[in-house]
Amino acid sequence: MTSRASQGPEQDRGEPDGAGSVGADGAGAALGFRLDRVSVNFGGARRALSDVSLEIRPGEQVALIGPSGAGKTTALSVLGAALRADEGGVSIDGQDPWKLSGPALRALRTRLFIAPQTPPLPARQRVVTAVLAGRLPHWSLAQALRSLALPSDPESARQALARFSLQDKLWARVDRLSGGERQRVSLARALVSGAAAFLIDEPLSALDPTLALQTLDVLAQTARDRGATLICSLHQVDLALDRFPRVIGLRDGNIVFDRAPAKVSGDDISRLYYNRDTGPVSGTEWTLETGAARSPGRPSRCF
Fold first, then answer.
1. How confident is the model at residue 28 (pLDDT cuts 50, 70, 90)?
2. Backbone phi, then psi, for 129, in 5-degree steps?
């Protein structure tokens, strides 16, 4: 498999393509993020995030990987101003979201698109309405109610669905879709949202390998076209290393590594998933896409 991510600079952080540019839909400049010694505690001895510091520059594309319970979803929620950290500082577009006024915070959130792993789609809703709901933060109550009765821009919804090979589902009901189709409908919302940053949690959990590649490529290309920031949590290590120019490994609420994929070794993955210096992912490995052996320098597993 040809690595797209490895074709870029090998330094841990470089100036992202399209950083700070204005999207064609007028969404505005991409958003940058900073966490400064952030901790989140949901109770108990172990923290969901523990003293995490990182910076994501406008227009970057970043994959978060790590075992279940590592803190990936929590990190996305903090970055998206959906969850307030217990300790530390959070900055989005140079602002602390929790020090903004109510209207200013709502305005900031209209520039963020957060896609949870399980899409909250009403079962009896039409797909066209579910997709156009990506525009709700920009609509008045009257506009939203009108679109429920008569979808305001079905052609935009159809075009977004076509990117995920779902255009034939435009007028279908959500409860008639498979799990993978629902997942892609939720992501089609991002394409109509006009957001300046996409924070996507496990978008591939219900998809086969071919659809997984298509979905990641659509998200990455859309972000590049708009100059938007893309942060995506994944369990598919191989795809994270192949499709993203920066990979952050999380375990037990801590950052284990943060670097370009070409610099991520088999031992890094062993520390991340097995919490030891060497483990089953060291040595010759099976590749997710081809089943062929590959060198230990580029691990390839779906965890």
1. low
2. -70, -40
Between residues 297 and 176, which one has the greater pLDDT? 176
CA 54, 235, 221 angle in degrees (round to 5)? 70
- Dihedral in degrees, nearest 10, Cα atoms 255, 36, 51, 15: 10
Give the H/E segment covering residue 182.
Answer: helix 179-193
Token look-up 């031992």 returns: 267
| Predicted confidence (pLDDT) at residue 44 exceeds the cutoff of 90 | no
- b/e for 128-163, b at 16 or more Cβ within 10 A? bbbbbbbbebeeeeeeeeebeeebbebebbbebbeb
End-to-end CA distance of the chain: 19
Residue at 281: amino acid letter? V
Flag whether the pTM goes above 0.90.
no
Distance of CA 283 to the CA centre of its chain: 30
Closest to 301 in 3D by CA, of 81, 65, 126, 49: 65
